[in-house]
Amino acid sequence: MTERLLREFELDEAVERLYRAGEAAERAGNLREAAAHFRVAADQRLGDAAVRAAQVLFLLGEDAEAQRWYEVALADGFDSSLVQTDVAARQGFLEHAARISVGAPTFDWLPGAVPVGSLDPADVRARTSALRALDRRYGGIVCHASVLAHLEQVEPFIVVGDAPMWTAVAEVHELAGWTAFDSGMPGVALPHFSRALTLARQAENEALIASVLTRAGRMFLHHNAPDDALKAFQLGFVAAHNSWADRQELSDPRQAITSLTTKTYGAERVRSHVLTLTALARNHLALGETATATELASKAVAAATNLRSARADDQLRWLDREARAAGASVLVEQISARFARCS
After folding, report:
1. Residue 220: CB partners within 8 Å, gap ≥ 6?
2. Is pTM, for the whole model, over 0.70?
3. CATH architecture of the domain covering 2-79
4. What is the mean pLDDT of residues 52-63?
5. Over the range 137-168, which residues count as b (16 or more CB within 10 Å of their CB) and which as e?
6. DSSP conformational letter for 335
7. Does domain 87-246 sit in CATH 1.25.40?
8. How far apart are alpha carbons 275 and 281 in whole angstroms?
């Protein structure tokens, strides 16, 4: 009896050590190692090891085995909400993406650290570009940890940044998601893609939103979820279309006007409203419809009374330049009044 109890005690102690090793591996981002440890602990019905195994396996995209441990956890009496299934994670991401697409406020997290010193968005983007080149040449497994280290350094600056910084950090999150996917961790990728969408919306960067959704769609396809991939691609197409309509070049004003007139914004989206009105004015002016352009410019200037945005001012300057070339003196006076108030 004593020998049997000693053997059982030694086994329990060994299993407990494996569980702790699994926790340490998960904290370090070594999910495959963590899964191996949690599997053994779950086999011995140690605590919530089945829950932990299911969580890690879902992150790794090992859906079938994750589902098995999920069912074991349920049979052991654990709450089903403790384990988010892969399907639920994709659904949550797509719901978030849909809110982003209609411009709804979605900023629901803050960095864990505070910014120290100053940071130039151009420097952030240069580092991101270098890491992206490594990913393309050597694969995501090689550089995912470096991308996360880069993200840890730059993410705090979103709380003191503006559109250029939000865009720069969004691109880091996009790359973190992409390298996580390429490392075999689709569940890890989704939160990064989600935050990239949030920051891209803060910056009103439709092109980046389209890029993130396209990458998410490609990941869903790879993991045999074609319906969810199609939804991501469709939302990405909308963002790409909006980006095309907002661009500086006015190669097809009538088509741009058709797209821009479908965009509506609430009272809290002042910058987006001003950008849309200005883009509409520029396209109407390009068609020779000076009266309509002047009316739209007047609305844009009025809406921008309390707005301080370099992007909005750039758009108004482009409109001013085009109005001067077209001899639209009333329109020029309206825009001049905007900059006179800001000076």
Report:
1. 90, 226, 228, 229, 232
2. no
3. Alpha Horseshoe (1.25)
4. 79
5. eeebeebbeebbebbebbbbbbeebebbbbbb
6. H
7. yes
8. 10
